[in-house]
Specification:
InterPro entries: Nudix_hydrolase, NUDIX_hydrolase-like_dom_sf, NUDIX_hydrolase_CS, NUDIX_hydrolase_dom. Its cofactor is Mg(2+). By secondary structure, this protein is α+β, with helices and mostly antiparallel strands. The protein is built from three helices and seven strands. The chain has a four-stranded mixed beta sheet, with helices on one face. The protein has a three-stranded antiparallel beta sheet with strand order 3-2-7, with helices on one face. The termini are far apart.
Length: 133
Amino acid sequence: MAPLQRCVGGIVFDDQGRLLLIRRAHDPGQGLWSLPGGRVEPGETDHEAVVRELREETGLDVRPHTLTGSVVRGSYDIHDYECTWTGGILTAGDDASDARWVNSAELANLDEAGHLTDQLLVTLRDWNALPAA
C-alpha cells in the first residue's frame, strides 16, 4: 500500500461571510466543487503550500492560521486551514476550472445537486466552518 500523500486546503471567507470554492479541473473529483488546495511539495510547510496552492488556483493571496481539521480521502491526507484573504483578484487557474464565493444556500444547493466533493458539506458542518446565510 502506497503512503498517503499530504495535502492542504484553505477555508477562506470574504467580508460577506461567503466561502471560497473551486471547481476541480482534474481528477480526483473533476467537475466537482471543493475547497482550494493541493499537494504539499517536498521541503514545503503546510502554510507555504496553502499560500502557493490558493494563489495558483484562485489568484488570491491568503494568510493561513489554525488547522481547522483533517480528513483522509483515498490516498490523500488533507489538512484544511482557516485563512484570511489578504489580496488578489479571484480568477480560476491551475487545477481549477472555476472559482467563486458561495453563501450557505448556494452551498446547500450544490450539495443537493451532487456537485460537491465527497462529504464536503458534512465535514464543514462538523468543523463549524459553514458560510454565513
